Amino acid sequence: MDNTRRPIAIVTGASRGLGRSTALALARNGVDIIGTYRSRKTDADTVAEEIWRCGRKAVMLPLDTGKIKTFSAFRDRIQDTLRTHWQREHFNYLVNNAGIGIHAPFATTTEADFDELVNVHFKGVFFLTQNLLPLLKDGGRIVNVSSGLTRFSLAGYSAYAAMKGAIEVLTRYLAKELGANGITVNTIAPGAIETDFGGGAVRDNKEINNLIASVTALGRAGMPDDIGPAVAAILSEDNHWMTGQRVEVSGGMFV
Q1: Contacts of 76 (CB under 8 A, 6+ apart)
Q2: Catalytic residue flag (residue 146)
Q3: Catalytic residue chosen out of the listed positions 15, 21, 93, 147
């Protein structure tokens, strides 16, 4: 497939964890990738090399999704990247994945922590999507990453889960407003995943890992590669009639 026809996905936070898994799963499905990273350029370059080995094209760009004032310049860079590497004006898929983890009880959550979560997980997603929308092809797809914590409650995640709840509401409104252009918008909600997210507690703390396994129907905590292929499935060419939906991929956690 030539550069003018192959689908292109923008995946934020593609250097590690769920973003890395998503970028690679999409590449294996024949999608070229524009990935973003905040600080881990070496990791991002490694992901790009893996994508090239899959026979797909990859470009990695720096982006802090909590710095909303940079989004206009980032859009211009995306436009230049599309023209330079693909000779195109538009991309096909946007995966709003980049995030941070702050674990704190409601009573001790600081305003600074709250504001950082707002900027990265809600305001950043809202305005990055808005900035990139003119470059998203009609008939394109958006997937916003939420969390199982919007369905079940665990102490210490009130602020984080509230932001993800806002994303799920935003997803439905985007599906409504962008449907006239054939654009679908869905949310994927992972359960507890073994990554370095939030300090890596799910991965590294055996007690927490065992607790998660005990409340999960499939009997273990999730892995990044449980999530990336699920995002790729939502973005598959055959899945064109689903929009405004929340898809939980948690192995049946607290089912």
Answers
A1: none
A2: yes
A3: 147
